[in-house]
Protein 1
Amino acid sequence: MADEPLILGIETSCDETGVGIVRGHTLLADALASSVDQHARFGGVVPEVASRAHLEAIVPTMERALTEAGVTLADIDAIAVTAGPGLAGALLVGVAAAKGYAVAAEKPVYGVNHLAAHVAVDTLEHGPLPEPAIALLVSGGHSSLLLVDDLARGVTPLGATIDDAAGEAFDKIARLLGLPFPGGPYIDREARAGDPAAIAFPRGLTAAKDLAAHRYDFSFSGLKTAVARWVEARQRAGEPVPVADVAASFQEAVCDVLVGKALDACRTSGVETLVIGGGVAANSRLRAMAEQRAARHGIRVRVPRPGLCTDNGAMVAALGAHLVASGVAPSRLDLPADSAMPLTTVSV
Amino acid sequence: MASAGAFARQGVTGRRAGRLGWFTVLVLVVDSSTPAVTAALVEVTVSGVTTRAYRCTVDARAHGELLAPQVDAVLADVGARPADLGAIVAGLGPGPFTGLRVGLVTAATMGQVLGVPTYGVCSLDAIGYPAAAGEPVLVASDARRREIYWAVYDGAGQRLVGPEVGVPTAAAERARALAVTAAVGDGAHRYADALGLPLRPEPQYPDGNALAALAAERIRAGAPGEALTPLYLRRPDAVAATARKPVLP
Ligand SMILES: [Zn+2]
């Protein structure tokens, strides 16, 4: 094991500054600095605030990761960094940092795709990923369904959200219900005391007429409006809003669509492994529902522990390790940060 | 990683050797506060600051792509390795945020790897100091949004006022009150009409050699490195969340 390459991963695509260190599939360090508190009063991530925080956090976060892993930058074999997709200015700090480390330590650098990294992180918990697999990636910034045929060289996008990201919907409903930002964990907590069948909220893009064009796409904006209408109607009638029931019914509708479409993709493609990643994968109902329904179809669900589902450096290091092991060539030093990096590009 | 480069020996023994009179530190200089992306290798000795290699590309949209290859190139130009560096100097801005951060994060991360001190210099000083020619001068760089980052320097190149950000006419008014007779920098050229001051052609952008010269005393003294804090001068554009609009009519 000790002769497997030692890989460093840097993540700065949104509001988390992450530095992870892995050796093969073994996680050695996962240091994180978050600017989430600075965004709370704005109700969403402010790009410039995030970029400033990354610049301040990158050196100390690296220091913590190296200490945690008990290694120095001279010991590292390669540096991987999220090159996209994400917030342009935030990505640029991480990419420039990775290059600074690479030039100074004379190491190769890999600019990698953030979404592919969300898939790769599961190898740290559950070992090599059987290919092909279906991946469901759901967070505040993305909601995608992909066919992972070769994680080192390219994945096939099957569908994505056509409006809000799943995590964004959680944030907006949380705000509607007077819960703090980011909304995911609070909705999850409230929902535990509620009845998921109390209110029949709509399931976006699941009607027969939508499936023809959007079989694997998601839409959460109609659901968001439906919840808002329901809550406002209650408020206008002077009736109390049953927060737990609304949270549970809303969460049920989101999870129902996500799991339903992901399992449909597995069955249609004849794939037996479903990987779920991204911040929303930390949602307890999504995890439980996916396990339950997948079992009926003989499909294995792989979800990393919640701490690895949200953005972090370990996921980038995990993908970097996979690229090195697969013999993929490193990036050039002029590699750009690409806020709209397509899923078909795993590394640049 | 062991480097046997000539600069490594000088870098390591430089401080003690300084008393003997042959002190030399190889310094990397970076600045990305303007459309010019600059990397330079400079030798700082007891008595002087000599530029050994210089790369500067003017491209406001490619700081992230350009800087690291330029750092690599200046090292290659003189046959040095990163471990031969004894200090790093970075222009702190002011400058448009996204590009400015590229130089600062490059300097900070390289300093961390190499265990060498990093020193910050106001980027406008690296225009005003070399531009000074006996009379006060206004230095201006482009701040976008029809504003400039500016500062006023005396005839010896010492900053009198600034750095500030604002509209060119306001800067010109302050400059005239300080008996400024000329303006310099890319922002001065761009807003020449609004400033109404005679222009000096050079330097348009922060000068690498000047950045090193302005940090030379700290380098020679072996002063502790500094956290490289950008001179943003503007707050982030962000509005606090307002009350949600109802969906019912
Ligand atoms: Zn993510």
Note: The interface with chain A takes residues 1, 62-69, 71-72, 81-82, 97-98, 101-102, 104-110, 112-114, 230, 232, 236-241, 244, 246-248 of chain B (CB under 8 Å).
Protein 2
Amino acid sequence: MEIVIQGLTYRYMAGTPYERCALADVDWTIPSGSFVAIIGGTGSGKTTLIQMIAGLMTPTRGHVLIGGIDDFSRLRGRVGVVFQYPEHQLFEETVAKDIAYGPLNLGLSQEEVNYRVEQAMGWVGLPRELASRSPFHLSGGQMRRVAIAGVLSMQPEVLVLDEPTAGLDPAGQRELMERMYTLHRERSMTVILVSHNMEEAATYAERVLVLYQGRKVAEGQPVDIFSRHRSLKEWGLEAPEAPRLADRLNRRLDPPLPDGLMTVDDLEEAILARWEGRPR
Amino acid sequence: MEPIIRLDGAGFRYDHLQERPEAEWALRGVHLQVGSGEYIAVMGPNGSGKSTLAKLLNGLLLPSEGKVWVGGLDTGLEKNHPLIRQKVGMVFQNPDNQIVGTTVKDDVAFGMENLGVPRQEMLKRIDQVLQQVGLRGREASSPHHLSGGQKQRLAIAGVMAMRPEVIIFDEATSMLDPGGRREVLDAITELHRQGTTVIHITHSVKEAFQAERVVVMADGRIEWSGAPHELFHRREKLTRWSLEVPLPLELKERLRRRGLPIRHEITGTEELVESLWKLLSRD
């Protein structure tokens, strides 16, 4: 489902002295089945934007069309949102019941619900024997997975992830992102990632939207966005470490290494190519 | 000198709270001393016992075995708790969960009111701590209109106003954007410079580098403890403890393995760039 965002604007407490424009005139098209990232500093409007994409807030002006539909009552369950620290929203007695909550509300048969719970647990890498355990006795990383499985069990076509890896250790971060990426590829699920982690945006996203003070200030491929070092600084952001290191080296190296080195793999190969091709 | 914090074989098991036969030790046999005015970073994967350790340090949790001493006071004795909690302040991960006042000023005052600090003294301290965290002039603002970094600095100000000897930061930067993160790290450095003992729990190797000593935890035990620069020569260990390997270190190792003559001692970005520039420019 393609997502078309047109002139999207949101004002908090409109008409009062506290009126504040959280989002102003944002246009953006997210192609069906793509993996995109929204980046921006605190207060840039990221969360406001995804709440409107999820139909949880009504825009002051402009609209969001999902698969050509702008009536969110017809989209329930097709857009899944994993909020920040989703484990705070767990509430059921067992892991399986918590994950089943959404599908049961869709009115699916018990058999179908059971199947979906098992499937979602597999997607997030939760061992089966945890199904009957209380979600509150699990580790933080496992609780996060239960909460994400609860959203995935709805089989959404669009998955919005708001800071999904915050607070996880580096190994846990990588595993979660890899699982979400696999799901995106295998099920052609559209993924919208909101992250402070520029490495994640650079590694997984095809397109990146940059918000600054409620406005769209840039949109493009990670390679283009993350080579704009000066602008990123102005927006309260910074490029991932690999392009920053490449930039520092290139300021002195003549001729410079090629553009678009986003990861440590890219750097390794480019430096090696230069080393092997050097005049002897 | 008597350390401000001392753990003698401290351990903690969560089965006090819930009768589960499979309850495991979250922390086991921990010996640790933190000197007054020291700045330490605590690292380790999720579930390694970092947060349990932090909660033992101000009596939020009591050790199931061994002893925990704060400024010479045994945390196992309930009568010591009020004094221990004055000595040890904590700043948590989520800035939104730590705000209680409707204005910046009220928020800072909250902790002091609980301690019964006289009004004149309170006003003096509010002014002082807001100055220190760079929020002076925002006294009347609503905390909810602050940025994430500002909210965390407000939380720090509230803790500082109670004049603790030790401040524990439990992943206090993990929800912030790069700008907010920098603000909080600068505030931590400043606190340490002024003599506060700092315990900074973090997943970021880069943040840990700011400390004087790094403690690595795994499976409820202290695996390693030493100066930050020593840790960075142990790439294999970082991987084993599922900590991130800093980019310059990873790149250097890979290039060395593929035959580039880069010196082993290099750990920082600046040195690596310098070295690569020389190698690649040589004709």
Note: Residues 170-187 of chain A form the longest helix (18 residues).
